[in-house]
Amino acid sequence: GNPGIAAPTVCPLAHYCPGSTAAPLACPLGTFGNSTGLTNAAQCHTCPAGAYCAALAVGVTGPCSPGFVCYAGASSSSPRDGSTGEVCPLGFFCASGTAVPQPCPAGTVGRQSGLQTATDCVDCPAGQFCAGVGHSNATGPCAAGFFCAAGSVANTGNTRLLPAVEQACPAGYFCPEGAAAPVACPPGTLSNVTGLAASSQCVPCPAGFYCAGVEPHLQTPTGLCAAGYFCSSGAAVPNPVASNSTNRAAVHGPCPAGSFCP
Hints:
The protein has about 260 residues and is mainly β. About 0% of the residues lie in helices and about 20% in strands. The protein is built from no helices and 22 strands. A two-stranded antiparallel sheet has the order 1-2. A hairpin with an 8-residue loop joins strand 9 and strand 10 (about 100-105). It is rod-shaped. The model has no long low-confidence stretch (mean pLDDT about 90).
């Protein structure tokens, strides 16, 4: 009751009051004070991961911003100091309220920082594969004898939509290392074998036929050699010009004088 002495006041929210000070001290940045009467900074609560606590917070201020990860003690929704948070790293995505970045799925890459959703991760480039999760670059090239469409999860062309199915190079085609799509056997050749890795593995068109090198005749000859012409091997058209070579006999061309070519 002495009117000359002020009545003591309880230390307010978001502050602490050590006995040595007359004025309340603010809880440190990245913490909150949700009760009155605190006497030291250690009684202020560290802001939980995935959230941020602005100055003079009496609780969590809000979630971490999309594209960022907030570790414990963040005072900003988009921290960049690396200790209380950072921009979502390469190969990961961070939705609102992220405490732990989520890896981009297998068959995708995250080539930019700050991604916000799994759909921000892009398909692995065609001709390459991305095994496992959390990649910012492809794992490596597609294996020879296979082709890898965009989104492949293995060097044998398995995609994330069909992870158990290998994409062997089909008959009539060859697939060198890093193939994004099968390449047709060249005109004058064919193949009925799958998994070829080079054009040299395609075989010459058989005698008496020509092979134009287009579907649907990449596994079988396109047709018969034309009358008046001969096709011993490797003809690409029904009426081939003479195959001149100083080292070997002609393998196709117009019927030679004195010969009969039905």
